[in-house]
Design a protein that fits this description.
The chain has 686 residues and is an alpha+beta fold. It has 20 helices and 17 strands. The protein has three domains: 248 residues, no CATH class; 135 residues, Beta-Lactamase (2-Layer Sandwich); 227 residues, Phosphatase 2c, domain 1, CATH 3.60.40. The strands form four sheets. The chain has a five-stranded antiparallel β-sheet. Strands 8-17-16-13-14 form a five-stranded antiparallel β-sheet, with helices on one face. A hairpin with a 4-residue loop joins strand 11 and strand 12. Helix 1 crosses helix 2, helix 4 packs antiparallel against helix 5 and helix 11 runs antiparallel to helix 12.
Length: 686
């Protein structure tokens, strides 16, 4: 059946063959409706011409003008209703009390008034053609025009002929049964003829809905059809009352009655607009609430957003073409599917917008260089939650149903559009937050692993040397540390002591620390008791193999446990403190005698030597101790370090270390730790 219909229709509209099924079936319906109604309309025009008596025009010129004015006025008070036929599919029907004007005119002066109706229909058809934005809308206008002419000529001339056969006359005879019943019969016949005239189109629409799997909406379509007829035909019998008033009481009473009817029509129009606005707002609030819940309950990630929009966005806004996308061309939602919006010209303009923008058909669209015909349009940017940068857009072309779109009605949609774009922003931000949390977890795990690896590089067993005590600790400020210490066994029972600090924090300094520790340990074993040579070799290798701007402050000393002699090199590090037990020279700082490692090539370092006597203690540390801050921003300082160490001199290495750390922690209190803390204590037994 569809192939037969298409064969006929594509003679007039060849493009139907390449359309989607839904649009093709709608286009075929328009063509077939024109083909079966046009002959009826043409025959009606000929019939009207044959029955026209110009003498009647001359005799009733004033009445014709009066009825023409009333027709125009009542057409300004059209009321309407909108019916939802399916997902994002609406139908609208308008009604008015102009049927009272039409039948009053015909009952008083005969069918001559139909010429004005024909001219009015032609005028409306021309306006529709001029404002049409597509071939489909032109055929839709042609279908309506053809059916209107058929209805206002043949559809009315037959009832008027029936009216005359039943004894009716022009002008109306008054409130007598011989005049009232023929008029009612003519109106009833007109209703039946309209059902017959539109039944072909109605049958085709019902069939096409079955073809597209929308059979469940057939009943709704039929219900809408008869409701639309009833809305227009219910006021017609009041024309009998109006005509009788004109005959018996004169034109003033007739006009007074018409003023009352106009007030009723005007109130009905206001009520229908308010009802439709309330229906739209209620639907939008309901859909927005459902969309919000769906976004909250959906799995994190923007991959689910298109499916959520597909479920909740249809019917949220009035009928039209709608696309939601992210720049430049990632479509999140589009309706209808076969529609191809010109996003390439839209998004560069929308990128600079911050608010919802509305454009009526008369408005020029700023993203085009010249004016193009278009439907009412609403556009809105979708912006990032944090930066406010526009990254997507909302574009809605509104179909004009019974309700004409004006600036006020367009503005009523802006809050809903803004709420919708805010929800899209929220959904995308939720996806970003989820991605960040995953990345944070990954980085945290990697940092934890790096910290574990780094900790494994540090000595875990203290040297067991008769006459000596060792205590060592490292408290990193984060998962990884730029500090390190080491105890290196050397020949002849000597041991190497290393405390160092890479100048920065994070993964990079941690890697730099691992490299530095490995090089110092390697060269210490290779070069034995030459700290300056160890630092020279380490410095040259680091500068040769890396391009980092990092550097290392380090202290390396070689201790002879038998004699207590310590040969050391201090490469820019905090000076260790040698606390004497004899009370003569209480404290001796092993000051810097070289620059840090990793700054300059061909640098030479020098060695110094000190002797640790029985009862002496050596405190080695990094800047995390003197630079520790409390809530007041005060520093712990090296003087406090020395003071605490001197107060605990004579205790074991472990107790001395604990006293220093306790003092630091008590000073800092609850303030955050900004730097790594490394502390090594050597005590020579008495």
């Amino acid at each position: 059946m569809e192939e037969r219909f298409l064969t006929i229709a594509k003679v007039f509209r060849p493009e139907l063959e390449t359309m989607s099924v839904e649009r093709r079936l709608a286009g075929i319906g328009d063509v077939l409706s024109v083909l079966y109604s046009a002959p009826i309309a043409f025959a009606g025009l000929i019939w009207l011409a044959l029955t026209t008596d110009l003498k009647v025009v001359q005799e009733n010129a004033i009445l014709l003008v009066l009825f023409a004015v009333l027709w125009v006025i009542f057409n300004r008070a059209v009321f309407f209703f909108v019916v939802e036929l399916g997902p994002n599919r609406y139908a609208s029907a308008d009604g008015s009390l102009f049927g009272i004007v039409l039948w009053s005119a015909m009952l008083l002066i005969g069918p001559i008034f139909l010429w004005f109706i024909v001219l009015w229909s032609i005028y409306g058809f021309v306006i529709d053609l001029r404002t049409a934005t597509s071939n489909a809308s032109r055929w839709d206008s042609l279908r309506n025009f053809s059916l209107q002419i058929a209805a206002y000529t043949t559809g009315l001339l037959l009832p008027l002929t029936f009216y005359r056969r039943l004894g009716g006359q022009y002008p109306f005879a008054g409130f007598t049964s011989s005049a009232i019943f023929p008029a009612l019969g003519a109106m009833l016949l007109f209703l039946l003829l309209m059902i017959v005239l539109w039944s072909g189109y109605l049958a085709y629409v019902s069939w096409s809905q079955g073809m597209t799997g929308e059979g469940s909406s057939v009943r709704t379509t039929i219900y809408f059809f008869f409701l639309a007829l009833g809305l227009n035909f219910a006021p017609h019998p009041f024309a009998i009352l109006a005509s009788g008033l004109f005959i018996q009481n004169g034109p003033l009473i007739f006009i007074f009655f018409m003023v009352g009817m106009f007030m009723v029509a005007y109130l009905a129009r206001r009520l229908s607009k308010a009802t439709e606005s309330t229906r739209q707002q209620s639907r939008q609030l309901e859909r927005l609430e459902q969309l919000g819940r769906a976004i909250i309950n959906a799995p994190p990630g923007e991959e689910t957003l298109p499916d959520i929009l597909q479920e909740h966005l249809p019917n949220m806004f009035p009928a039209g073409n709608l696309v939601v996308w992210t720049f430049p061309d990632r479509i999140l939602f589009k309706h209808p599917e076969q529609w191809t919006p010109d996003l390439d010209t839209v998004w560069p303009w929308l990128l600079r917008q911050t608010e919802v923008q509305g454009f009526l058909p008369k408005d020029a669209t700023p993203w085009n260089d010249q004016y193009f015909k278009h439907q009412p349009v609403l556009m809105a940017p979708i912006q990032e939650f944090e930066s406010g940068q526009t990254f997507g857009g909302f574009y809605l072309e509104l179909h004009t149903l019974a309700q004409p779109w004006d600036r006020r009605s367009l503005n009523t949609l802006i809050p809903a559009v803004q709420s919708f774009t805010d929800q899209i922003t929220s959904a995308m931000h939720q996806s970003v937050v989820y991605s960040r949390s995953l990345e944070y977890q990954r980085v945290t795990q990697e940092l934890q692993m790096a910290g574990d690896i780094q900790s494994s590089l540090l000595p875990t067993i203290l040297p067991n040397i008769p006459g000596w005590q060792f205590a060592m600790t490292l408290e990193p400020a984060g998962e990884t540390s730029g500090d390190f210490f080491d105890i290196i066994p050397l020949t002849d029972g000597k041991i190497g002591i290393v405390v160092a600090d890479v100048m920065d924090k994070g993964v990079g300094p941690a890697l730099y620390m691992a490299i530095s520790r490995t090089l110092i340990r390697t060269y210490a074993i290779e070069l034995d008791s030459q700290p300056d040579t160890v630092f020279f070799a380490t410095n040259e290798r680091i500068l040769t193999d890396t391009t980092s701007s990092l550097f290392v402050t380090a202290f390396y000393g070689v201790l002879n446990p038998k004699t207590g002699e310590l040969t050391y090199c201090n490469a820019g590090h905090n000076p260790p403190y040698l606390l004497r037990s004899d009370g003569i020279a209480d404290t001796h700082a092993l000051i810097r005698n070289a620059i840090p490692i990793g700054i300059a090539e061909d640098t030479t370092w020098g060695n110094d030597t000190v002797l640790l006597q029985p009862g002496d203690a050596l405190i080695l540390y990094t800047d995390g101790i003197p630079d520790a801050q409390n809530h007041g921003g005060e520093f712990f300082g090296e003087s406090s370090l020395v003071e605490v160490a001197k107060a605990s001199l004579g205790k074991s290495a472990g107790d001395l270390q604990a006293a220093i750390l306790d003092a630091v922690h008590q000073f800092v209190g609850g303030a955050p730790q900004y730097d790594d803390i490394t502390l090594m204590v050597l005590v020579r037994d008495r």
